[in-house]
Amino acid sequence: MDNVLEVKDLATYFFMHDYIIRAVDGVDFTLGRGETLGIVGESGCGKSITSMSMMRLVPDPPGRIISGEISLKGRDILKISDDEMRKVRGNEISMIFQEPMTSLNPVFTIGFQISEVLRLHRDIGKQDAITEAARLLRMVGMSDPEERVNEYPFQLSGGLRQRAMIAIAMACEPTVMIADEPTTALDVTIQAQILRLMRQLKETKDTSIAFITHDLAVIASFTDRVMVMYAGVAVETSTVHEIFKNPLHPYTQGLLGSVPVLGDRKVNADGSRKLLNAIPGSLPDARRFPRGCRFAPRCPKAMKKCWEAEPATVEVAPGHQVRCFLHHDEVRVISKRDLGAAGKRVLKNQQKNSGKKKSSADGSKTDTPTARN
């Protein structure tokens, strides 16, 4: 399968006043033509920031992509100018955002917002763009599209707004479409309709989809491969069948073990209520990740080595990559990242704050050498 998208060592940091948030810290994955890649992980693990980085929509400041490569059909889109990226965004790579009510502009009609994409990338007239917008709304299953193009987002239901977002994303028939939790907050019947629609679009247009979700049932039924993220890195990647049949990373095993299964006994043998399996603890602070494996503080299988070094991502079986010392002994070699002027400013503020704390602790009013620097 030809890869239309290749992401290598992607790192996106947020530079605050006196600390740095490593939201995405070295992510690697590929996306084949016509393939659907599911990206899963609990809230805060870096899924949405990964997708925003792929679109080059990370707000700067405070965020910045500090390293990596995002190759779209052989061209690194991190190296092109902003003007060139505007020609790519919405045309070759598009995105369905997480919440359509806040992503759609409330003061413009649905028809205008779809036609805007067409007029920018297809160089067609206003009336032709509105006509095409109505066709797209009909394609995504919206009734009375000629009427809907004149309506505003607040006049549509959640399901219709999501369909409008899909129409905008598919307007120029992009090679890659990113769907950031497109079925969140929709009832199950509308979810099924949206997933059916996306599957039809993928099959008819040969579109590659990066699908971000918390719903493992959707992952099982809709995706071809799965990437599991934790604390800014990918901990396991494989086919959807292999992930569900043979999960290797303890975090992946914990996610799958926390899903309720229809028909399971609700009580234990002694009559006590049977509880769902849960992963203890919470995500580590992205300002100060623990030394070694980032999942070690929550891992029931953690070894001494897990606390001393960070594992590398290794292919332990054809197409199955895992970041865990239970399955290999390779240690991750972290390349030095250029934090730029923003990083130097943060480090300087950290030094000032540590100097103030030291002065306060010893009762001295004299500046310390750290504070003067």
Description:
By secondary structure, the protein is of the alpha/beta class. Helices cover 36% and strands 21% of the residues. It has 14 helices and twelve strands. It has an eight-stranded mixed beta sheet with strand order 6-7-8-3-9-10-12-11, with helices on both faces. A four-stranded antiparallel beta sheet has the order 2-1-4-5, sandwiched between helices. β7, α8 and β8 form a beta-alpha-beta unit. The longest helix has 23 residues. It is globular, with a radius of gyration of 23 Å. The C terminus is likely disordered.
Any descriptors?
single chain, 373 residues, alpha/beta, eight-stranded mixed beta sheet, four-stranded antiparallel beta sheet, 14 helices, 36% helix, 21% strand, disordered C terminus
Biggest β-sheet: strands ordered side by side in the sheet: 6-7-8-3-9-10-12-11
Helix-strand makeup class: alpha/beta
Oligomer: single chain
Order of helices and strands: EEEHEEHEHHHHHEHEHEEHHHEEHH
The helix count comes to 14
The largest pleated sheet is described as: 8 strands, mixed
Beta-strand percentage?
Answer: 15-25%
Number of strands: 12
Q: Which whole number gives the mean pLDDT?
A: 87
| Through-space gap between termini | 54 Å
Q: Looking at the structure, what is the overall shape?
A: globular
